[in-house]
Design a protein that fits this description.
single chain, about 230 residues, alpha+beta, 4-stranded antiparallel sheet, about 30% helix
Amino acid sequence: MHQRYAVYFTPPTDHPLAAFGAGWLGWDIAKGEPAAHPRLDGLPLPVDQITATPRRYGLHGTLKAPFVLHPDFSAEDLLHAVREYGSQQGPVEIGLLKLDSIKQFIALRPADPDPAFVALVGDVVMALDRFRAPMDPQELQRRRGTNLSPRQDELLRLWGYPYVLDEFRFHVTLSGSLSDNQQAQTRAVLEKTLEPHLKRPFMLNALCLCGQLENGCFQIIERVPLRG
């Protein structure tokens, strides 16, 4: 039994972005083990400091955010539901990914998200929500105290996460909080390093059901192909 579960996009293991992301973050989400950081010149801080916050999640884009499993269901029930969903849904294009800054952190996100992809993610959130245990009052109050808009607060109460449906903004986090100067220096290094890996549009052709291990890090339980 894992502490929490999530449904993520992750690049296929044979895609060069997957290998780079594992090393950059220091955690291989596919293998569930630490990965050696690359040696990159020009960074304002050591890689392990830049990536400390997102490390435990591995390289991913959130489709359904981490949740505690509802006591009425087992992990096998959840996996069966994800497999069933994958058997009925075909792949969709995410689009080209570009390096960007979101508030104080660096991420990859679509230059022009495909509406079919955005709609599919919203459907995944709702279709699997019965497996999410309700948040306890203390956790709900903590999350509500993070400068949410009224709409985000409503989504948090309804779906357990404020950035879903019309508030969804797909991204692949690459850093923790950085100053403006640190962001600029880090982005300059990443842009040069990642440029060869971002020339073609990315596809969502699988749902990665992930579980949180005892050390707090996430690992892919199963990559479920979209073959509907």
